[in-house]
Amino acid sequence: xxxxxxxxPGEVIDRAREFTFTWNGEEYxxxxxxxxxxxxxxxxxxxxxxxxxxxxxxxxxxxxxxxxGCMVQVEDEPNVRGAHRRVEPDMVVSPQGxxxxxxxxxxxxxxxFGRFLSAGFYYKTFIKPRRLWPVYRRMLRRFSAGGRVSxxxxxxxxxxxxxxxxxxxxxxxxxxxxxxxxxxxxGAQVLLVEEEYELGGHLRWGDEAELAALRVLREEVAGTPxxxxxxxxxxxxxxxxxxxAVMQRNLPHVEERLVKARARTLVVAPxxxxxPYVFEGNDTPGVIxxxxxxxxxxxxxxxPGEQAVIFSANExxxxxxxxxxxxxxxxxxxxxxxxxxxVVRVRGGKGVRTVELAxxxxxxxxxxxxxxxxxxxxxxxxxxxxxxVYNQKTARFFPSKLPxxxxxxxxxxxxxxxxxxxxxxxxxxAESARRAAKTARxxxxxxxxxxxxxxxxxxxxxxxxxxxYEHPALFRGETHGIVDYSEDVxxxxxxxxxxxxxxxxxxxxxxxxxxxxxxxxxxESVNAVAIMAETTGRxxxxxxxxxxxxxxxxxxxGALAGRNFEPVRYSPMQPWHETHGAKPLVAGAWxxxxxxxxxxxxxxxxxxxxxxIDVTPLGKFDLRGPDVPRLLNHLYINRWDNLDAGAVxxxxxxxxxxxxxxxxxxxxxxxxxxxxTTTSSGAAGVWEWIDNWLQTAHPEWQIHVTPVTTAYASxxxxxxxxxxxxxxxxxxxxxxxxxxxxxRVREGRIxxxxxxxxxxxxFTGELSYEVHVPAAYGLHVWETLMQRGAxxxxxxxxxxxxRILRLEKGHFIVSQDTDGLTGPYDVxxxxxxxxxxxxxxxxxxxxxxxxxxxxxxxxxxxxxxxxLVPPEASQIVEGKSEIVGRITSSRMSPTLxxxxxxxxxxxxxxxxxxxxxxxxxxxxxxxxxxxxxHAHYDPEGTRQRG
Length: 946
Prior knowledge:
Elements: E1 14-23, E2 26-32, H1 36-42, E3 49-50, E4 57-58, E5 71-74, E6 77-81, E7 92-94, H2 121-124, H3 133-142, E8 159-163, E9 167-170, H4 174-185, E10 190-193, H5 208-223, E11 227-230, E12 233-239, E13 243-248, E14 257-262, E15 265-268, E16 273-274, E17 287-289, H6 290-300, E18 307-312, H7 315-326, E19 330-336, E20 343-347, E21 354-357, E22 362-364, E23 367-371, E24 374-375, H8 379-383, E25 389-391, E26 396-398, E27 406-408, H9 418-445, E28 482-484, E29 489-490, H10 491-499, H11 505-512, H12 525-536, H13 540-543, H14 557-561, H15 574-579, E30 583-587, E31 590-595, H16 599-608, E32 611-614, E33 619-624, H17 628-635, E34 648-654, E35 660-668, E36 673-678, H18 683-697, E37 704-707, E38 712-718, H19 722-727, E39 730-731, E40 745-750, E41 753-760, E42 768-774, H20 778-788, E43 795-796, H21 799-809, H22 843-850, E44 857-863, E45 875-878, E46 882-893, E47 898-905, E48 915-919, E49 925-930
Parallel strand pairs: 1-7, 8-14, 9-10, 9-15, 10-11, 15-27, 17-23, 18-19, 18-23, 32-43
Antiparallel strand pairs: 1-2, 3-4, 5-6, 5-7, 12-13, 13-14, 16-24, 20-21, 21-22, 25-26, 28-29, 30-31, 32-38, 33-36, 33-37, 34-35, 35-36, 38-42, 39-40, 40-41, 41-42, 44-47, 44-49, 45-46, 45-48, 46-47, 48-49
């Protein structure tokens, strides 16, 4: 049966573009501009879902994003707002959480047990016996009304954006549009956000005069520079200093975009939400709000029923009666609440059949329209710190005391004619621009300017006061009914909860789950408060409200995660690595050469000749200023105020809890210039760590820190012939052992390149030089090293060879050989800790660590079977199952011809020669012995100091 009407003046459907889609396995026609539910309603469908707990049939209620009865599954996407989502050609839509069908849902048998499913029943049942809880859980999951997501769901594209508007207007109704135009005309950059697909609010389904006013407002918005409009978007949260989260949904090829806006002024203009009425049968399909009826008729040209009863307490109900009559709906009765009329109950299962009134009349109909009052959506002002107050005259809540950077206009601020509301909104918009400009001047005043001329400050604008119209306080009739349509919470449930001692609205919310469903209380919260007030004998003011928290609207995990943005970083030598067959290794954001075919041969070449490795990803920071030693003393556990110019020192950083955070070397290049290096993976964290201390704890220190990780290409030249190779390339640097000893830094020209520096350090355990050259010359220097060292047997080596070399030498790697509990004492660096320093990060915890003896210690380990390499993370055990340590690093050593390891063991196992049991992942146990040093090769360090 078609319920489609003829053309309407304000309809949003395009009758020239007709197509079909699938609902519940059948094909349905639709027009472009239809929502899923408006298209179905036009075909005579009345039931779109089943309720959460009782699986009662549910139909249209508000015909908006908030409609709790219109949650559907669209292909593989669950919980789609069917009354908001626009239908598309060939879209496959289905009901969710029903079995075997929407029409005949076996789960509706729950209704017969409703008396046993009272408020908080889940707290009282399914507890004992505990062994049956898995059965209960599976059963309850099957009764869930939610949709399903397949494991093979295709991942859409999500995006994020940062915005800095002067004024952000939340709500694109007439007041929001007028405020945005006024603010922009006052010189502000404005972001106007509207939840619907078009601007206009209630004017869109209004009469000819309202449609004419809407056209004027839209023209003003479109013709005023400085306004950015986001429709099908929602302001999801307001945080400190007007940091505002906006969810944008109307972008091509983007599922959702999270816009993080820092607004100088926020104007809250959300309009009003029509409130349902609580009575027996109020959730029967065919019971709808007046705004839903007007939306269906005027926006989608859909006839909502054949014979209607209207329960009206305001002009919206009166206007709906006229709309229904013009649409060919027989209006059987208009029940006027202003004259004492009331609705007692609705009878009907899958649709309204009769309506019983307070005067005893029982009227046959298929449609009941209620217009009993309005709820002001105060979420954003709650998030701004305001506590709304109830006004008995208007029977709704209003703001009480807003911060200076938040203003309101429209129905949340008061009543009035359209002209009065627009005048108020324009004044609010102009004032918001003035306050935004004041904030901008304050921010500029804190920034050094070439000119110190003070800008004149205009006086505050005068915002007219809106009238407040009297409205009946209608929340519940004589009978009990559904309060929360999303959660199947009834007014009886609230009364029962109060009798059980839950007399606070916040406690009742959590006990009964009222207002905790998909609508999040926007439709039902005031009714819940009013019923609790009635039950407890308190006023609504005394009962208070629940607290609104972000997000205002549901957010997908994809939107929170943002774009699939994984920046990939390459060193300047990457083309050479690829050309020469390097196997790539993903190391954080960097792509590094893991090896060039044979890591063992690369190791031996470093031991016997000379090798070069690309270490560009090492974190590098240029530190300048007289207070750099103070910073280094604070960051590192060892002492730094005695570092000479030209010297390099190894340092370890700890967090405040005394856990090893990072390590590296820092060299002093001049009187007030230092270069710090960090681990490759720790560079970003160290930069944040430094910045945090300088900005919060010690802003008075005179230090300038510049991250230069990508400004320099870094090459480690290692092996007994490394000095000989570099002598062929360096200028102005004396490489003799006496002039350039171990742990020193020098600057000069390398391969003809100015601005280079190098230091002598030995991560590989061989004579080595770490060369840092301007990044643009990295490939040139690398190729020159390879060319000039050909006769010396120079060859590249990758990360795997480097890890073998460092393990042979006994050097630990932060996060490989340490974890979230490891302190410097645990890895054998207790001698470095200088507790006599005044203060440094982690000092209190390190004092505590130094006094404790029971912590695991890092030791060198060699399996008795030298041909067997125990996998890393293999457990070290005693007895049957007591874990007393673990293997942290293990490799086959080409130099020694046997397996070697580093690992943590209990203190009583640290003595050299102690035999320990290593349990392999397959359960096999092998023996290993603790070595005298971490170093398995050249423990005296003769080769690296050569």
